[in-house]
UniProtKB/TrEMBL annotation:
GO terms for biological process: D-amino acid catabolic process. It holds the Pfam family DAO. One of its GO terms (cellular component) is cytoplasm. Coiled coil: none annotated. SUPFAM superfamilies: FAD-linked reductases, C-terminal domain, Nucleotide-binding domain. FAD binds at T195. GO terms for molecular function: D-amino-acid oxidase activity; FAD binding. Keywords: FAD, Flavoprotein, Oxidoreductase. It comes from the Eukaryota. It comes from Moesziomyces aphidis. Signal peptide: none annotated. This is FAD dependent oxidoreductase domain-containing protein.
C-alpha cells in the first residue's frame, strides 16, 4: 500500500463520503477535508443532510451512464439492507406518478426492481403510475453509518481484509483552491474534488456550469411507519409542481416535498409553500395524517431547505492534472449530480476509484 497515492477527498456530502468508502475498501489511505461535516445536520450550505433519500432513478432509456451508476448503487444497497437496521435502510412499496404514460419497456429499471407493475388508469393514484419495491434511507443514520465505517479500525460492512487505514475526517473552514490541499496535507498526491456547487468558487476549477437547485421540504413524524405491518410507502408525483412522500426508512420520520427551484439559493422556508406541500402530500398518502385529524395536524419536526449541487451537462467524473502549481496535482472530479446523489452514489464512487486505480498503475513504476 505504500506506493499508492494518499488521496484527499474534498467535501463530505454523500458523494465525498461514498468515494472515500470505495477508496478505503480498495486499500487507499484517505483523508477527508470539508467545511460541512455529516454531523452538521442543520447546515443549509449543502444538500446531503436534508435529502429525502431513496432509490428512484431519473435516468432515461438513452442515458446509459446514469443507468449504470444507479444500477450499481441499487445492487450495493441490496447487500447493505440485509445488514443495516430497518430504521437506517428499508425496502418499501414505491408508487411513481408521472404525466406521461409508461409501459415496462419505457422504464429501464423495470427488470431490476422487485414487483414492478404498471397501474391501470383511474385507480386513484394518478393518470399514469408505476409501482415497484425500492429503498429509502434515513439520511442522518445512513451518513452516521458511513462515517463509522470510514473511521473504524475494523469496519464491519466493507472488505476489512484489504481495507486501507481508518479515514481521517477533518473540518476545513476555507479552501481557496485544490492546490491549497497540499499546505494542509503535505503527503497528498491526489485530490478527489467532491465540493458540489463549491466547484464554481475554487480558483483552479472555476466551473461556471455548476449551480444550486433549491429544495424545500417538511420533515414530519409518522410513528406508524416504524412497523412493517403498517405499510410505510413512498410516493413520487413528478411534474410541475412535484410532490413526494419519502419515509426515512422505518425511523418514523418522513420527508414531504417539495420544490425544485433552479439557480435559487435562499435558505428561508416559505410558510405558504410548506402548507401546500403538506396538503398535497396528505392527498397522496392519507396515512401520514393522524386518525381523525387533518393535514394541519401532522406533527412537524422541521422545515428544511437544501441546495442540490447540479451542473449543466450533468455530473462531472473525470481525471485532470492541474499544472498551475510548482508541482502538478492529479485531481479526480466528482460533483454535479443534482438531486440523484444518493441513488447514484456507489456507481459514481466506483468510477472515481477506477480512475484512481488506473492512474496509480501508470505512475507506480516511477515512484
Amino acid at each position: 500500500m505504500s506506493d499508492r497515492p494518499h488521496v484527499v477527498v474534498l467535501g463530505a456530502g454523500v458523494l465525498g463520503l461514498t468515494d472515500a468508502f470505495e477508496l478505503r475498501e480498495r486499500g487507499y489511505k484517505v483523508t477527508i477535508l470539508a467545511r460541512d461535516l455529516p454531523q452538521d445536520t442543520f447546515a443549509q450550505t449543502f444538500a446531503s443532510p436534508w435529502a429525502g433519500a431513496n432509490w428512484c432513478s431519473f435516468a432515461t432509456l438513452e442515458d446509459k451512464a446514469n443507468q449504470r451508476r444507479d444500477a450499481i448503487t441499487f445492487q450495493k444497497w441490496l447487500e447493505l439492507h440485509r445488514q443495516l437496521p430497518p430504521e437506517v435502510m428499508a425496502m418499501v412499496d414505491f408508487t411513481d406518478i408521472n404525466p406521461t404514460k409508461r409501459e415496462a419497456k419505457d422504464v429501464w429499471f423495470s427488470s431490476l426492481v422487485p414487483d414492478f407493475s404498471v397501474l391501470p388508469n383511474g385507480d386513484g393514484t394518478g393518470a399514469h403510475a408505476i409501482k415497484y419495491k425500492s429503498f429509502t434511507i434515513s439520511v442522518p443514520l445512513y451518513t452516521r453509518w458511513l462515517v463509522s465505517e470510514l473511521t473504524a479500525t475494523k469496519p464491519t460492512l466493507m472488505s476489512a481484509a484489504r481495507a486501507g487505514p481508518p479515514v481521517d475526517i477533518r473540518r476545513c473552514s476555507t479552501m481557496q483552491s485544490l492546490a491549497a490541499v497540499r499546505s494542509l496535507i503535505p503527503t497528498c498526491t491526489l485530490v478527489v474534488n467532491a465540493t458540489g456547487v463549491g466547484a464554481g468558487d475554487l480558483a483552479d476549477v472555476r466551473d461556471s456550469n455548476v449551480y444550486p437547485i433549491r429544495g424545500q421540504t417538511v420533515l414530519v413524524k409518522v410513528p406508524s411507519f416504524k412497523a412493517p405491518s403498517m405499510g410505510a410507502r413512498c410516493v413520487m408525483k413528478l411534474g410541475s409542481p412535484a410532490n413526494y412522500v419519502i419515509p426515512r426508512a422505518r425511523s418514523g420520520e418522513v420527508i414531504l416535498g417539495g420544490s425544485f427551484d433552479i439557480r435559487q439559493s435562499s435558505t428561508t422556508p416559505s410558510t405558504e409553500l410548506a402548507e401546500t406541500i403538506m396538503r398535497e402530500c396528505a392527498k397522496l398518502v392519507p396515512e401520514i395524517v393522524p386518525p381523525g385529524k387533518t393535514w394541519r395536524d401532522i406533527p412537524v419536526i422541521s422545515h428544511n431547505i437544501g441546495l442540490r449541487p447540479a451542473r449543466e451537462g450533468g455530473v462531472r467524473v473525470e481525471l485532470e492534472v492541474l499544472k498551475n502549481d510548482a508541482k502538478p496535482l492529479t485531481v479526480v472530479h466528482s460533483y454535479g449530480i443534482g438531486p440523484a446523489g444518493y441513488q447514484a452514489s456507489f456507481g459514481i464512487a466506483k468510477e472515481v476509484a477506477d480512475l484512481i486505480d488506473a492512474h496509480a498503475q501508470q505512475v507506480r513504476p516511477h515512484l
